[in-house]
Amino acid sequence: MESVLGLFREGGPSMVALLSADCSCCSLWVPAMLLGLVLRRGIGRRIAQVVAVFLLIGTLVPLVVGIAGWQAGVSSTDRAAAIVDPEYVAALRAVGLAEAEIPLRFGVSSMLGLLLISLLPALLAFRAEAEVEEEEEARSGG
Questions:
Q1: Which residue from 24, 34, 32 is spatially nearest to 58, judged by alpha carbons?
Q2: Ramachandran region of residue 127, left (φ > 0), alpha (ψ -120 to 50) or beta?
């Protein structure tokens, strides 16, 4: 089994951008969750909903970065294949395309993981107004 650090090394510079995108989305998750829990009425509720939508849209960033890293890897493989001896082109392409897929795979898996995590703040922010009112009435005892 290959190590994660080995995959990051083979994946190239786009892997750093992928890690940065993941950290950015994760750093927004806690405030979005708190906004969904605390802000329940009026403009506060709308703010929580907007933050939750941006968080959900932000989960697409690792996918886009992964696609860009894959395209950069394919491009560099094609450039290298153009200058090597023709008998080595097939082997070079096989290795180059396998390494180019690493950022794409990490991007897809990051997007899916972040999407699952981001659903909780979105569900909290978009709860039905009636549920919020019933919950508040139950707390006040009336």
A1: 24
A2: beta
Count the domains in the chain: 1
133 located within any domain: no
- What's the rounded Cα separation, in Å, for the pair 72 and 102? 12
Q: Determine the structural domain holding residue 18 and report its residue range.
A: 4-127
CA distance 62 to 57: 11
Structure tokens at 105: 């795979």
Using CA atoms in the order 42, 129, 112, 110, what is the torsion angle rounded to 10 degrees? 30
Domain-located, residue 140: no
Give the global pTM.
0.72
Per-residue pLDDT tens over the stretch 6-48: 766 776 777 777 777 777 777 777 777 777 667 666 777 777 7
Structure tokens that stand for 126 in this block: 């978009």
Contact (Cβ atoms closer than 8 angstroms) between residue 14 and residue 72: yes
121 located within any domain = yes
What separation in angstroms does the CA of 134 have from each of 39, 138, 141, 142?
A: 15, 6, 11, 10
Number of Cα atoms under 13 Å in the Cβ half of residue 70: 15
